[in-house]
Amino acid sequence: MRKWIAVTAVLLAVAAGAAFLWLGGGADAPRPATFRGEPTTAHYAPIATRAADPDPLTVAEMFPAGPVSAGGTTLTVKGTEALTDCVPAVWGSAEAAVAGCSQALRAHYATPDGRISGQFAVFNLADSTAADRLVAALKDGGFVRPAPGTPAGFDGSRSWAQARALGHYVTVSWVAPVGGTGRVDLTYPQVAMDGLSLVIQRRLVR
């Protein structure tokens, strides 16, 4: 009886550890401490499907060479990546949610002092229904993986992220302190990174 109880306790501990890695992402796949997800709206009806907006996104279109800034905070692009297979850019339930995704573009940014790191990803889905599904998956059970070049000290446990479904696209902006301890106000870094979503607005008037 005691042996059975001991085995059960070990199994429960293993299950709890697995749940932590799944819900929390673990060291290699962190989740943000603060997350906001937004479904698409009627405003994006002209680009509700990829068929209505067939031209693929480009790195140059999404990530201009200049910095992004808000409230006196400036972040400069440090590296970009274009994927035609979207699965490597996500983990957990988000892997199933990117079915039919034709491209994922990613970039990582940093403040001049390197104390804050930001990243931005955009996913090209088949339609707005798929985009809403991905935003929901990013909220529960999955998230994006850190972009290549993200510093090792990127602290997911203190990070903020926002995901938006914009027609058939999903954008994800994510910022975090690098190293250090304590609370860091990420308001302006988050606003600066999320500003890249405005690029999608131009697709409405093509």
UniProtKB/TrEMBL annotation:
Please state what the protein is called: Uncharacterized protein
Please report the organism this UniProt entry assigns to the protein. Answer: Streptosporangium brasiliense
What does the record give as the organism's lineage?
Bacteria, Bacillati, Actinomycetota, Actinomycetes, Streptosporangiales
